[in-house]
Amino acid sequence: MSDDTYGLRAAAELIGIMPSTLAYIVSVGDVLPERGVPTSTTYEGTVWNDLKKFVFTSPDIERYKLEMDRRNFVDFKAEYADVYTPDEGPNSRGLEFGPGWTGILGEFCDHMRDYNDIGRSCKLRWGKEKFGALKLFCDYDDSIQRYVEHAKGVAYGRSLGTCQECAAPGRLRYGDMICLTLCDRHAHLAEPLDLERDGKVLDVSAWTRSQRRTE
Ligand SMILES: [Zn+2]
């Protein structure tokens, strides 16, 4: 084991990410520093409060670099370079959601590849997580609009049943500050929960529309 150790800020710099990003990945709980890790993983609990005391070793740094490759969809981007044409320009957007939705993303792009193969262009430009659901943005041939919009709807619906961290079955967790679709194991990431709405609102956009209708 290497004797070199680093605090949160120094470790984040070596990995090439913001300290807050490293803190988030630790709080997810799947890739933990090898030394001195508290077992509780809630925002109210030990991991969050003790992050400044965390010690990262050189092997930890390498493990978190690999984890960032996974979170940056490195394998997906190589495999789907013909379908994924990254957004460009000063305010360009990326793939801004958790790695648990990689399978949904691949399935969507398989569909788009089929259209490209028959000469109907469809390119994925970017995507984001909003209120716990996956929203994808594409450039496509007008003639296939309804098919692309349908495929986007399928991806949206599947994301609301899939943990955005690990791809296990999940549901929307309605937090006081954030809504995320997570499995039981990762539900702590949305804490503290809004106990009035958590478990009742499972699609924020649909719920908001229904609220407007009853006004
Ligand atoms: Zn999960």
Description:
- 40% of the residues lie in helices and 14% in strands.
- The chain is an alpha+beta fold and 215 residues long.
- The chain folds into two domains: 67 residues, no CATH class; 141 residues, no CATH class.
- Strands 3-4-5 form a three-stranded mixed β-sheet.
- Zinc ion binds next to loops.
- The site of zinc ion (ZN) has 8 residues, from loops.
Residues in β-strands, percent:
5-15%
Q: Calculate the terminal CA-CA distance, rounded to whole Å.
A: 63 Å
Ions, cofactors and other ligands present here are: zinc ion
Provide the domain count. Answer: 2
Helix and strand pattern: EHHHEHHEHEEHEEH
Categorize the overall geometry.
Answer: globular
Question: Helix- and strand-based class?
Answer: alpha+beta
Report the total helices. 8
Helix content: 25-40%
- Got a strand count? 7
What would you report as the Rg, rounded to the nearest angstrom?
A: 19 Å
Main β-sheet description:
3 strands, mixed
Q: Strands of the largest sheet, in order across it?
A: 3-4-5
Residue windows where pLDDT falls under 50 for at least 5 positions: none
Mean pLDDT score: 91
